Amino acid sequence: MVALRAALIASLVALACASPATRNLVLHESRDGVPDGYVKSGSASPDANLKLRIALVQGDMAGLEKALYDVSTPSSSLYGQHLSKQEVEEYVKPKQESVDAVNQWLSSEGISASTISPAGDWLQFSIPVSKANELFDADFSVFTHSESGKQAVRTLSYSIPQELVGHLDLVHPTITFPNPYSHLPVVSSPAPKNVTVDAAVPSSCARTVTPTCLQDLYGIPTTPATESSNRLAVSGFIEQYANQADLRTFLRSYRTDISSSTTFTLETIDGGSNPQSGYDAGVEANLDIQYTVGLATGVPTSFISVGEDFQDGDLEGFLDIINYLLDMDQPQQVLTTSYGQNENTVSRSLANNLCNAYMQLGARGTSILFASGDGGVSGSQSSSCRNFVPTFPSGCPYMTSVGATTGINPETAADFSSGGFSNYWGVPSYQSSAVSSYLSSIGSTNSGRFNSSGRGFPDVSAQGENVAIVVDGSREGVAGTSCSSPIFASIVSLLNDELIAAGMSPLGFLNPFLYSTGASAFNDVTSGDNPGCSTNGFSATSGWDPVTGLGTPNYAKLRTAVGL
């Protein structure tokens, strides 16, 4: 080991002394061309400052994956025995030779980096564009998104020293482009529908969905939670702010059985904030808070506002919020996020690193939920395409993706509900049977337009159309899977409260449970589809499908399934 480390240091010293032209750089990541919707506007200013992040190759992620499944699979003897902060970090931390190699290289280039993750697998530093081009044999340029006008400094390829292969996993932001559109719900005007409404559900729910509708439809209890240790977190990005006055109005309108002063706590990272003027009230943030505080009765809820101090797009914030939670001794047991983007805009290496971060938090006992997207098979938003576009992070196997339904009796798939199959991750074992059954049922339909060996999503679904919220004092209806994720998160939080009260563990990573003992606890949604790419997309059917997943929740059956 000593000899190996000495040889490594010697090679890095030689590397530092070499001129840029003679350094042994090898191509590390590249993309075929400029992403759809972007055009290259010109070279970036050499003096412009770039905030770069480096991911080191992580330690024993296969071991952590096994540990995750052991504590998350109901048939396992270790089910519910979630890992500690230290146990997770022991799996994730890079090998010492990787830390030494990368730090020696940075030092030789006069770069001082800071560690930004609990396990030491992410570093951050700032350098001019000219230095970045030299260091990585890159061509950082300004790219403009034609429709939105948003600009980003990116390169289509970059290289790293041969000596760092196997030690340095990726550099960001490089070939990953930001999402030009915020994944936000669509403000809609609720319209009457010709549907039959079950006697147990108010007829008004066919037009406007409220907390009472959801309680009646899914059997969600109204009695307050009792366990202060059981906590729910709502993530906030892109200057979306949750307004307390609007929450009070919402509760006075739709939860008259609880105090209108019920509120949430604020946590901030990366310079986040939460201004309270009506003008600043965000549709997404208000939706997420109103359908967690207003549905997960009595569960302590946090709004985590992620600022833009270190961001060039949303994905830095995606990582930072997970690292923020991983750094806690006791992170919240549920995290819901209603943001995302198309999988093909994210480099495979970055996607894997973010997915691994969800693995870490899941092993700690946190249920991670994301809205699946609102473009059907076209991706996170409707767009032109030939092949179906999976969304990120819904394709990651270590989180739970939530699609959308509409109507009351019966519920049908919302036509915007994104779903499909990942191009980055294969089918995880927990859903292999469900995916196989669905693929057999559709035969050759849409053959060649999607990856039939990919991880399927969404996993579950909930109401996502004509959902009532309050924004800047006014009542509005919104639609999107952005509605569905906080609704499902609230149900998980209420189940966790009962589990903790009974001396049991919270649910943690949900999917192995959902696809096994929990599968029969869902209302099967068997009609509707998610069109896109000039097709009808996928169709909902009996059992799991890539439109509504396993279906919508039945609280009473879920209680039984979790052992209550």
UniProtKB/TrEMBL annotation:
It catalyses: Release of an N-terminal tripeptide from a polypeptide. Residues 1-18 form the signal peptide. It is found in: Secreted, Extracellular space. Ca(2+) binds at residues 524-525, 543, 545. Residues 208-564 form the Peptidase S53 domain. One of its GO terms (molecular function) is serine-type endopeptidase activity. Secreted tripeptidyl-peptidase which degrades proteins at acidic pHs and is involved in virulence. Its cofactor is Ca(2+). The active site is at 284 (charge relay system), 288 (charge relay system), 482 (charge relay system). The keyword Phosphoprotein does not apply. Binds 1 Ca(2+) ion per subunit. Its EC number is 3.4.14.10. GO terms for cellular component: extracellular region. The keyword Signal applies. One of its GO terms (biological process) is proteolysis. SMART domains: Pro-kuma_activ. This is tripeptidyl-peptidase II. Keywords: Calcium, Glycoprotein, Hydrolase, Metal-binding, Protease, Secreted, Serine protease, Signal, Virulence, Zymogen.
